[in-house]
Each structure stands twice: as structure tokens, then as C-alpha cells.
Amino acid sequence: MTFEIPIKSGAARINEVIIGTEPAQVKIGGQNCLPFHNFEGEIPNKPIIAFEIYDVKPENWPSWLTKYYEDVFHDPILWAKKCVDDYNAEAINLNLTSADPGGLDADPIKVAETTKKIRGEIAVPLIVYGCGNLEKDSVLLKKVFEINAETNLLAGAAEEDNYKPIAAAALGFNNNVITLSPVDINLAKQLNILITQLGVKQERVVMDPVCSAIGYGIEYAYSINERLRIAALY
Q1: Cα 172 from Cα 145, distance rounded (Å)
Q2: What range(s) does the CO dehydrogenase/acetyl-CoA synthase delta subunit TIM barrel domain occupy (predicted)?
Q3: Structural domains in the chain?
Q4: pTM of the predicted model, to two decimals?
């Protein structure tokens, strides 16, 4: 008796998102099956690994990590280039920490100009996160989208309390937007609905459901990601 593996391809696909412009361009998404289940469907684009950097020197990093970057901490452009040239980063994830009102409170225009300079110096896509302050990010990310208009930049994060101005800026300047929902599947779905109702195309939205780093949080975060993927496909 022959055993046949049950096959269940997705009824839908994960939206394919283009990040960056040629030659620094990648595609993510597009699959119609679960991760590693290429026997059930297609996975046209592999996951990419982005190296995370900051626009100011991070505080309280352990020495075993700082030793790799201490020569470039003073300049985010050099930091980004080192990640690409020395460590083969497939993308750069830039955190605009300097704009935080609780820290340096840097000018949004000046901070946004840094993103453009970095994008021009690396041969991989740039992903940008704001400073984490909802009010400041609404202004900051608008400037980031504006100064990088029509480059397929991926930036965020648009949250429940500030998604409107951020999504509107992504739409107006023809870029991609990240939605942030703190391990909450219902909020993640709702943000997608609200942002697309503003006119942002589905293929311009990337979801960040957040991941906890320790203990039970890892399992819970994994479960949320799994449920989101299943809900999208079946």
C-alpha cells in the first residue's frame, strides 16, 4: 500500500512586495504555501536577512558585539557599508534613534537626509524604522518618505494611534509601509484593513507582528506569526 502525502496548497498568496530600486532591489513574499512546504506550492522569493543599525551610537551594547562595529559607530553610512561589504547583509534596517524626543530630539529633516545618503551608498535595499515615539514618527516618517520618494523604500512603523499620517505619506510618495501590531492578530488584521481603505495597495504593506525574545514570549510570537500566515493562505 502506497502512502500519499496529503497536499494542500493555499487558496491565496502572500502579497509580493518590491523593496528598493535596481540594482539594489529585492522581492519578498509571493508564496502560496507555508514555510518549507514547497512540496505544496511555490516559494518564489527567499527570505532576506537585514542587518540592524542605528543613526547614533547605541548605549549599553556588550563588548562582544561592539568590537565588530566600534570603528563605524560614529557614522551610520560607514556602519551600513560595513554590514554589506564585510558581512554580506542582504538589506539594512536603520533605526532613527536620534529623533527620539527623550534623547537627542534631532530635526526630522536632518534625520531624513541621512536615510537618503545611506540609500545612495549601499547596493542593497534600505528599511527604515522611526524613533518609536508615535507623535514624532508621524512627522519624521513623512519626511523620510518624501526625501526618498518613489524608491520603493520600506519604512514604518504605522501603529494603531498614528497609522493615518504615515500611511498617507507612503501612498503620496509611492513607497512601502510597515504596520506594527504588538503580538495581536486582530489588530494586525485591522491595521491592514484600515490602511488599504486609505488607498494604500496591499502589495505596499509589510506586517511586523513583533517577536518577544525570551521564554513563553517566543512561543506566543511564533504562534501569532503562524496564525497570520494560515489566515492569509487558506
Answers
A1: 9
A2: 16-233
A3: 17-233 (3.20.20.20)
A4: 0.94
